[in-house]
Amino acid sequence: MRLTLQIWRQKAPDAPGGLVDYEVDASPEMSFLELLDQLNERLTLEGEDPIAFESDCREGICGTCGLMINGVAHGPQSGTATCQLYVRRFSDGDVITVEPWRSAGFPLVRDLVVDRSALDSIIQAGGYITVPTGSAPDANLVQVARGEAELAMDAAACIGCGACVASCPNGAGQLFTAAKLAHLNLLPQGQPERSRRTLRMVAEMEEHFGSCANHRECEAQCPKGISIDFITMMNRDYRKAVRENRKAGGEER
To answer: How far apart are CA 191 and CA 197, in angstroms?
Structure first.
């Protein structure tokens, strides 16, 4: 297959950037990241700077591989991270535009690499539980209702790639934050910090990202199909936490 890749190149955050065309020959069985690897090998041999992009597990688990491909987060195949996208999804002669996440919450570092540390700061604000130290408790000591366990697992499927933010017209981080809250708030072990966790993580989210306006682009482009129902759950928990906080005298609980 003969493809034309229009790739965003930018050497530094303050440097001028633009799309550069590359003609590539590709096998339909290559993943999209393997295609970029092949192009980088060629650029290196030609004495040019390789294209900077992120990847790690290449199994759709770590979330670092996120790219905008033809204006769509992770590309044209729904429920798929960029590393799981194969060249066979395109046709011979296609022109493919590859860009980094476009969001104020994700400052550009170089080429296709952005700084997603804002997502880490949300987790650091409250994404943990307090447990007693010592020997491991019996597996059945704390019982969890099946429905809540399944919902928590659905929320925990979030890989933190940032596609929800990149695809949202407002650059909102609600889906990511809601998923991270839900997988702890739904379980018995997460109850002691539930209100404090919700207040802290939502406050941190609002420092970096825009507001949700129910465009639902986040849900549509999420590679793990995280439902916006979790945003509703987060909003409900937040309102409850605010009321509890006021009754407690306005101090963080």
So the answer is: 10
